[in-house]
Amino acid sequence: EASSVKACVFRQVGVTAQKTMRLLPASGRKATQKVVVGDQDGVITCFGIKKGEAVPVFKTLPGQKIARLELGGALNTPQEKIFVATGSEVRGFTKRGKQFLSFETNLTENIKAMYVWHISGADLFLCASYIYNHYCDCKDQHYYLSGDKINDVLCLPVDKVNCITPVLACQDRVLRVLQGSDLLYGVEVPGPPTVLALNNGNGGDSGEEIVYGTSDGKLGLIQVTRSKPIPKWEIGNEKKRGGILCIDSFDILGDGVKELLIGRDDGVLEVYNFESADDPVLRYDHALSESIASIQGGCVGKDGYDEILASTYSGWLTGLTTEPVHREDGSGEDLKLSQEMQSKISSLRNELEHLQMKVLQEREKYQQSSQSSTAVSSVPAFSVNDKFTLNKDDASYSLILEVQTAIDNVLVQVSVVLFLTFVNPQTYFVLFFWVFCCLQPNSNFLLATYRCQANTTRLELKVRSIEGQYGTLQAYVTPRIQPKTCQVHQYQIRPLSLHQRTHSIKHDRPMNTLTLKGQFSFAEIHSWVVFCLPEVPEKTPAGESITFYFQNTFLGTQLESTYRKGEGCFKSDNISTISILKDVLSKEATKRKINLNISYDINEESVRHTLKLIHPKLEYQQLLAKKVHLIDALRELQVHEGNVDFLLPKYRSILEEADQLLEEYKKQPAHLERLYGMITDLFIDKFKFKGTNVKTKVPLLLEILDGCDQDGLIAFFEAA
Fold first, then answer.
1. 160-to-25, 142, 618 alpha-carbon distances in Å
2. Is 478:410 a contact under the CB 8 Å cutoff?
3. Tens of pLDDT along 247-303?
4. Where's the BBS7 GAE domain (predicted)?
5. CA-to-CA dists, residue 41 to 198, 383, 425, 598, angstroms
6. How many Cβ atoms from other residues are within 10 Å of residue 421's Cβ?
7. What is the mean pLDDT of the chain?
8. Inter-axis angle of helices 522-532 and 575-591, to 10 degrees?
9. Which of 44, 74, 347, 588 could serve as a FRET partner for 679 with CA atoms 20 to 30 Å apart?
10. What is 212-236 written as a DSSP string?
């Protein structure tokens, strides 16, 4: 039963990347499996577990960081050959640690993803950022240039589908199915896919079923046939958990059906089983303190007890075992821990005391040596795993910082108007929060210091931006190590920061058009679009022209961007989007001393359309704010009167839902102000294209907004 699964820690290696830990096949019946893991120090470690202790099998010397680790072997034989991707090289080792392959590829970039399959020889499917290569016995067979970054790759089992069918997981929310060096077709998925796995470990009965996980936490199954994709099921991320980094299939519940094992970047491990024949159901979850880089089911610690092994970002190898930790007497009461477990705990305590003494001694030695005039302090190196992504659900950015050691503090410096929201405030407190007027370009608008509690290795912040306000956010990360040192990480807040790539748009909406013409290259206008909009690949697309579609995650408005050498055309149902693009693109062209011929076609109906999209959100937020402001008074009335039966039903419901209302209001600070700001910008932008300045009428507009009358608001826009 999942409820009986217990956690245990085996050992720690260096910082690990995604999909760099595997279990070697068992060598005999009921034998435990060996663990092999590669870290970012370039070290491959292989070990087994005997009597609860890690027993090393082999360990390689340090080198370039290991980006992927896969197992391979001839068809119908144990998959026990170890392949690692490091830099642009692939190395192969036997299960005893003897190197048998050193293949330097012709890739100009480092390998990001790898898949190994033995057909007639050793087939390697390798991906750099945008490039896919297929090698057979170290000879180049096929090549493909992707339109966006490649996050993962796999190949359908050739013994089942009778042909080589690689599948690429690309950042633009597309799975690209290849045939040789050509694109067979693309499969649209609901989020940027980060990981692929064969369903049931073998692609299902047909061999064509692929499970994918996305960076926004969604999970799905698609059957990839020769002619078209067939979606099977899709699971959303209702609990707002982290992105999916690793997937495996294993029968941990012992019911004869393999469960789906999922590892997320917020440290949540999930087990899904198939109670019905169709969609998987979440059966068990467990929260670790770090992102889970790799996951696999097997038998590691003790014969007869299956486990889920997970490797985390900082290199901890943690097992969730079905072995019972406690024994019970007939009454169901827990007895004392077994002798073996007591011995293990005693051994760990002794080892911990020894390490604490050693740390104190080394610290004293360092303090004494630092007082010498000839002493030189070396800056300690540390890894930071960061992620800055736009959340579609609440139109906010999540900044996640994960460090291999405990975080002391993080200083956030922002050059534009932003709203910071606290996530898990119990893990830190804000030392100070300083906001002052931005008088100079690129000067500080906001400074905030987050001082973390002891042993906090992961910090998450929510950032809410305003479109049209663009600049940089810098995070200064200082861990709890000596001597004190920090790393600076920089993130761009783009002019149209709330827009997200989408596969298609509704062409029946009233659209405004902005057209640019001038002496600029395809690469130049592409760099301007990259500067303006998120989720656009930095690499200039192949071909003579390109079209991207976007959706505003806050309002639901859309943008179509089509451009080529010498010409760009941008269409949106929101005048403010067109206005921001016009201003920013003009500025970027002026920097490069390029003359632009700018023309625009404004559709008056689009203003009414945009207001109708905004108004329901405005009405809801105003009602929420009114309810929240009444809560304190109603609670005070409840205390004085003893009961609230005399109140109207609508006021009683506010008291009953008070906690939920406050929680929702807390999650969306300044939400109403953002809506007011967007409507004000829409009003100003509408008349800016007519050459009229209406800023003096803004106070009157705000009065109408307080009344929350949609017809009156539309009438004001048309009459002004």
1. 22, 21, 55
2. yes
3. 999 998 888 889 999 999 999 999 999 877 678 899 999 999 899 999 999 988 888
4. 380-491
5. 29, 11, 33, 53
6. 18
7. 87
8. 130
9. 588
10. EEETTS-EEEEEE-SS-EEEEEEE-
